[in-house]
């Protein structure tokens, strides 16, 4: 199974498209964009908690995304201490492009299967999705 996953990773993730290289987002930035795409506008404290990172780390991630014009940061008029973050128009366009690309990948996977195989594949994907959990970090992988 790992061989198949490695081959899939190499075919889908390793080749970089010219548009991808211009964007050049880190893994944490992509996680942040996915979170904002799902939740919309969020207070920075909630945003950091949802990412499972300290507020300072979330702030640095948002700084980088603001510099890339993918996210905007706002203060509430009624309480200037409250900072909210949301996707910019460019961020929403990027999200739509990623969604379209993912749909294309999904279609290509399903096109290779017969109708009965598609149903089985989708059932298995639903089961995997419900039960999948990230592997816990091992102490030797945590950087000081």
The CATH homologous superfamily of the domain at 23-99 corresponds to Winged helix-like DNA-binding domain superfamily/Winged helix DNA-binding domain
How many angstroms separate the termini?
33 Å
Give the proportion of residues in helices: 55-70%
Tally the beta strands.
Answer: 3
Q: What is the CATH architecture descriptor of the domain at 23-99?
A: Orthogonal Bundle
Strand order of the largest sheet: 1-3-2
Specify the overall morphology: elongated
Class of the domain at 23-99, according to the CATH hierarchy?
Mainly Alpha
CATH fold group of the domain at 23-99 = Arc Repressor Mutant, subunit A
Structural class: mainly alpha
Strand share of the residues?
Answer: 5-15%
Radius of gyration: 18 Å
Topology as a string of helices (H) and strands (E): HHHEHHEEHH
Low-confidence stretches: none
Q: What is the count of helical runs?
A: 7
Task: Give structural notes.
With 144 residues, this protein is mainly alpha-helical. The protein has a domain at 23-99: Winged helix-like DNA-binding domain superfamily/Winged helix DNA-binding domain (Arc Repressor Mutant, subunit A, Orthogonal Bundle). Helix content is 63%, strand content 8%. The protein contains 7 helices and 3 strands. The chain has helices at residues 2-12, 18-23, 27-39, 44-51, 55-67, 89-111, 115-131; strands spanning 42-43, 71-75, 83-87. Strands 1-3-2 form a 3-stranded antiparallel β-sheet. Strand 2 (71-75) and strand 3 (83-87) form a beta hairpin. Helix 4 (44-51) packs across helix 5. It starts with a helix and ends in a 13-residue tail after the last helix. The mean pLDDT is 85.
